[in-house]
Amino acid sequence: MKFLIINGPNLNMLGIREPVHYGRETYDDLIKKIKAYCDQKSIICDFYQSNHEGCLVDKIQEAYGVFDGIIINPGAYTHTSIAILDAVKSVGIPTVEVHISKVEDREDFRQISYIRFAAVKTITGLGTDGYLRAVDFLAEYLKK
Ligand code: DQA
To answer: Residue 102 CA: which ligand 1 atom is closest?
Structure first.
């Protein structure tokens, strides 16, 4: 099984940005944690982070025929990007939406998620462990 883990804008600032919402782990810590978890399960994983919407769309398109599953935290593009939604729909790769913070308990403008219309599962509010739960979910989902 091969998973692509995509992080959107400002997630490269983990560890610095708003620790009250996103904790103290850095982006590098996050990658190491997911990689170690996937290694234990013999899942191949690759990582991508960008602050640019079009680059995220390109990466999703490039995943077609290469990856079995996508785990994506689109950051603020969650709440605005029909282009990222359409990209996930275009490739048809099972995709799990992850948010580190509990978005449902935050501002009104964070209550809409476009990516949710294409996601097989949404995980919020578990900190960076949410990505590990997404790995578990996708692995089970793809076995069926
Ligand atoms: C986030 C929540 C978004 O609302 C925010 O814009 C982010 C991070 C999260 O992981 O909790 O950048 O996706």
So the answer is: 11
Ligand 1 centre from 31 Cα, in Å?
17
67-82 pLDDT tens trace: 999 999 999 999 999 9
The dihedral sign for the CA sequence 49, 51, 57, 62: negative
The tokens describing 100, both together, are 């580190």
Name the 3-class secondary structure at 6: strand
**All domains of the chain in start order, with CATH:** 2-143 (3.40.50.9100)
Hey, whose CA ends up nearest to atom 13 of ligand 1?
75
pTM over 0.90? The answer is: yes
